[in-house]
Design goal:
Largest sheet: 4 strands, antiparallel
Number of domains: 2
Strand order of the largest sheet: 1-2-4-3
Distance between the termini: 61 Å
Structural class: alpha+beta
CATH superfamily of the largest domain: Transferase(Phosphotransferase) domain 1
CATH class of the largest domain: Mainly Alpha
Shape: globular
Helix content: 40-55%
Radius of gyration: 21 Å
Number of strands: 9
Number of helices: 10
Length: 269
């Protein structure tokens, strides 16, 4: 029983959001079922009529690149030349009829519970997630002439802290994916692009890593951390040091990408 509880926690961290669907990778499912990924996929192919596209689909190159960039998949080479499949909750349910074993049934129960918890989270926090066509909201921007700038940062830091406590890691947490609405000085924030959300327990390092894309300069991020450390009851210098390390790495990656793009354009003109 204790092992099953642990599995549920592991499962929640492995549920991904792709194409606005909550899914699990074939390799993660295979590991949970104690079989090789090749064995799982062969069993699926033998019963392919049971797995329509809304039950299972193959990842595109773009989706794989994104997974690699977020360290969900170590590298493309790790896949051995094949594209991974992902399974929706319905697809996982069908797997139990294909993988006929006691462990498969027990793991499926844990998986269903994990998916159910995620559904409850999304429903109970519906106000956090908004569509871009909601005209009542505006894109969050960091302008030095922004009205009530300090108040916005203070309330935004509190919102971010609460998001982190809800185990939400948005891998593209930038002002373009954050909307806000001003209700007489009380700011309401919401997130867009749920495809880039992962659900996991966030330590202090991950919390600061998520802030790196919020601004192009460290001085603006310091203002956010100044308020974040108060609501989190953490040492400011400690959090700022973590943020600075992640921000420096992020900026180096950006420069390397730009350098590679220039090189690519130069060689293919």
């Amino acid at each position: 029983m204790n092992e099953l509880i642990i599995n549920e926690q592991i499962i929640q961290n492995r549920i991904l959001t792709i194409r606005n669907l909550q899914v699990m990778l074939d390799r993660d499912l295979a590991e949970l079922y104690w079989v090789k990924t090749k064995v799982l996929n062969q069993a699926v192919k033998r019963n392919i009529e049971r797995f329509p596209k809304d039950f299972m689909f193959e990842l595109t190159d773009k989706e794989i690149d994104f997974m690699v960039s977020q360290s969900v998949i170590p590298s493309k080479q790790h896949l051995g030349g094949s594209k991974p499949f992902v399974f929706t909750e319905e697809g996982v349910s069908m797997l139990s009829s294909v993988l006929k074993s006691k462990i498969a049934v027990e793991i499926n129960i844990a998986i269903f519970r994990a998916f159910a918890k995620m559904r409850r989270f999304l429903l109970s926090n519906a106000s956090i997630f908004q569509r871009l066509d909601n005209i009542e909201y505006k894109l969050l921007k960091y302008d030095e002439n922004f009205d009530n700038r300090d108040s916005v940062f203070r309330q935004f830091a509190k919102f971010t802290y609460e998001i982190h406590n809800k185990r939400v890691f948005h891998s593209d947490y930038n002002h373009g994916n954050i909307l806000f609405k001003n209700n007489n000085g009380i700011y309401e924030f919401s997130l867009v692009d749920v495809n880039r959300m992962k659900f996991m327990t966030l330590n202090d390092s991950l919390r600061m890593k998520s802030l790196c894309r919020l601004a192009t300069d460290l001085s603006t991020l310091k203002l956010i951390v100044k308020h974040y450390h108060k609501v989190a009851n953490k040492d400011f210098i400690y959090l700022l040091d973590l943020l600075t390390k992640h921000f420096d790495k992020f900026k180096r990656r950006q420069k390397n990408k730009q350098r590679l793009k220039k090189l690519f354009r130069k060689n293919f003109k």
